[in-house]
Amino acid sequence: ILVCIWSWQREWTPEGAWQPDLVHDVCGHRGPAVIRCGSCGTVVTTHDTDIEMDAEAIWTVTSGARRRSTRGPAGKSVSADMQFNAVMEALGDRWSGAITGLALAGARRFGEFRSALDISPTTLTDRLARLCAAQILGHPSGTDRQYRLTHRGRALFGVFVFLIRWSTQAFPEAPGPLRILHRECGAILHPELQCRGCDGPVDRHSARIEPMLPHP
Ligand SMILES: [Zn+2]
Ligand SMILES: [Zn+2]
Questions:
Q1: What domains, with CATH codes, occur in the chain?
Q2: How far is 22 from 6, CA to CA, in rounded Å?
């Protein structure tokens, strides 16, 4: 989860350029990884999967994210250098996290968000406006009543798949469906990180976060 949050901040926020580097020790590649299906080994994005979840399941995922954020905006549990402020616009608030998750699962219309979450219209309007201002959501051209994830928003896919993997392990008795299917192979997605340099697996033992090299 943390590597995916780091990757997103690195690639989609201005302050990302100042974050420490993820280094794959096997090949020396520096930078974000991609996500692959643990069953068939293919690289996956939001377009290759079907997300099955209901409101109960969304709470399980996003309250996990919220609890973690109570450690403070500086993310001190990882490193004082890693600032998670921007990703918290999308995930740190219970409603925003649930709306972003539903959008990843395919929700588009105000009414869909509202009925799935049982949220008041005022609160929903507020959170949708905030997610649009944060450029997580936008309107497809020609419509102002539909909401679609921007490229920036869709890039949160990795954060969500690992949040869901963590949640299903941490809360095995959680109510409601909570799973991601990889359409191509039909398996429930067991996400893994893959190095962009050598296509090898990126994990705790083969990669590390290190401060960026100083400019010459
Ligand atoms: Zn697969
Ligand atoms: Zn590598």
A1: 2-72+82-210 (1.10.10.10)
A2: 9
